[in-house]
Amino acid sequence: MAEVIRMPRMSDTMEEGVIASWLKKVGDEVKSGDALAEVETDKATMELEAYDDGVLLYIGVEDKKSVPVDGVLAVIGEKGENIDDLIAELKSETSPVSKSEPVKKSEIKEDSNEEPEAIPDFDSSKINASLITMPKMSDTMTEGTIAAWHKKVGDPVKSGDILAEVETDKATMELEAYEDGTLLYVGVKEGESVAVDGIIAVIGEKGADFQKLIDAQSKKTKTTEPVAKSITPEASADSDPSVNLQKVQVVESKEPKKDLEIKTKPDGKIKASPLAKKLAKDMGYDLSKINGTGDFGRIIKRDVESYTPSAEVPVSAITEEQAEKSAPIQLPKVVGEESYDEISVSQMRKTIAKRLSESKFTSPHFYLTMEINMDKAIEARKSMNEVAPVKISFNDLVVKAAASSLRRHPKVNASWLGDKIRFNHHIHIGIAVAVDEGLLVPVVRFADNKSLSHISAEVKELGEKARNKQLQPSDWEGNTFTISNLGMFGIEEFTAIINPPDACIMAIGGIKQTAIVKDGQLVPGNVMKVTLSCDHRVVDGATGAAFLQTFKEILEDPVRILI
């Protein structure tokens, strides 16, 4: 009997998967455990295994196509088995409702300025080209920014070649090509952002009519500005109407638009791409003196690269008569002149803003602060580092003490899930790490079961990977409690915003030598302040206070870590 193979849920956040490649074809014999295909999820690329013996009778999804969880992928059965009725039933499950209810022309006229005639259906298999869309490279990614293109229109592309560098909210990753062909179309400029599943480029055979693919995708996503508008009337007025989009774009790249002189906005700001601004600043160029060849005189990367300061006419060469007719001389900048730079918000900063705003305005925070005598912790650390294979920091002691305290207070090791509270039995501690573009939180997993030397080595490795943008999704997911330490910057105390889905985050201040009362006497001592931020929906004041009390006892007598 034929068995239907459906898209499994391969991770907790997975909603759909993309068939990276089929490892079997229709007619091939399949055994239980054989890999049928490679599936791209939001976390990684995994192999899809067969659970039955038989013959692959049907494949419902082409390579590079996405399928929702539980969507039909294939059918396995006996050789020669008739599955026509089964296929018809499966297709009826996925047939769109819109086919039975055609849209009226009047409705189209009301919602769109385009002609009411819809793009006729066509068989995409006859077009030797494929769309490259923005993949979802992390669980929180909603859009990506093209940091740099490694290929240009007209370049040959092979499977595995790097097309571009994509900046996400977590890191900068390379976008690979999955097919051989020619880069026919680039839909996003360097420095610009595109939503997940948005069109980035088209790869195919030279001369392929890929515009139909773009139009179909634009209609599907109800794009308000069709991609076809990138073809300007000037570029095609003197050429044959049958010239395709690829040729028009090549002409545009060779012949900059000199007739567009508008390069400033009404408010006087110079119109330039973020990358052009950065290049001009690095090279010491004045943007106001560079002619823009982009849309409406916008200054782009190639304008800055081709600009030569030596081409300017020296002031001494201007006659008095010309000087009188020319614009007023621009005075040099002096101290006190108002100025500023505006930069595009990175994907990482957008995600930080979104997640922490949601946390601050939806989670009822309250804060508990406690002073801890670190005299014995300082002595213990000194003794440990005499024999430890790696240098143990105060932060490592904090991580281990927090993990031990969470084991004794499991109600703090929890998450708010809306209609229920999850009490985690495992202890995964997130360590906030500052990077140039914002903040990352790599995770030390099962921290309560690891030695101080193990924690020290792992934290150093994760911190280095975070600063070099080499963290993988498995490195930053799954935290149940978070620690943010600013003590090394001389901060005595601060409050931190809870990192969802955790119920608490602990802010660690620096160790300060001060006068303390000991046995009725005023003596010098070393004190560290910590502040626990709690989500009151999950953790009550007494629960948080009990956790801090245990944390204090462990650090004031570090031998308790061993218990």
Report what the structure shows:
The protein has 563 residues and is of the alpha+beta class. The chain folds into four domains: 3-95, RNA polymerase II/Efflux pump adaptor protein, barrel-sandwich hybrid domain (OB fold (Dihydrolipoamide Acetyltransferase, E2P), Beta Barrel); 122-234 and 242-254, OB fold (Dihydrolipoamide Acetyltransferase, E2P); 258-328 and 339-344, E3-binding domain (Dihydrolipoamide Transferase, Irregular), CATH 4.10.320.10; 347-562, Chloramphenicol Acetyltransferase (2-Layer Sandwich). The chain is 25% helix and 25% strand. Strands 17-26-25-24-20-23 form a six-stranded mixed sheet. Strands 1-8-6-3 form a four-stranded antiparallel sheet, with no helix packed on it. It has a four-stranded antiparallel sheet with strand order 5-4-2-7, with no helix packed on it. β12 (162-167) and β13 form a beta hairpin. The longest helix is centred in the middle third of the chain and has 16 residues, at 347-362. The model is unreliable at 96-119, 223-262 and 311-318 (pLDDT under 50).
What CATH calls the topology of the largest domain is Chloramphenicol Acetyltransferase
CATH superfamily of the largest domain: Chloramphenicol acetyltransferase-like domain
Q: What is the arithmetic mean of pLDDT?
A: 79
Oligomer: single chain
CATH architecture term of the largest domain:
2-Layer Sandwich
The total of helices stands at: 14
The class by helix and strand makeup works out as alpha+beta
Number of domains: 4
Radius of gyration: 31 Å
Largest sheet: 6 strands, mixed
CATH class assignment of the largest domain: Alpha Beta
- The gross shape turns out to be flat
Helix content: 25-40%
What proportion strand?
15-25%
Note poorly predicted spans. Answer: 96-119, 223-262, 311-318
Strand order of the largest sheet: 17-26-25-24-20-23
Number of strands: 26
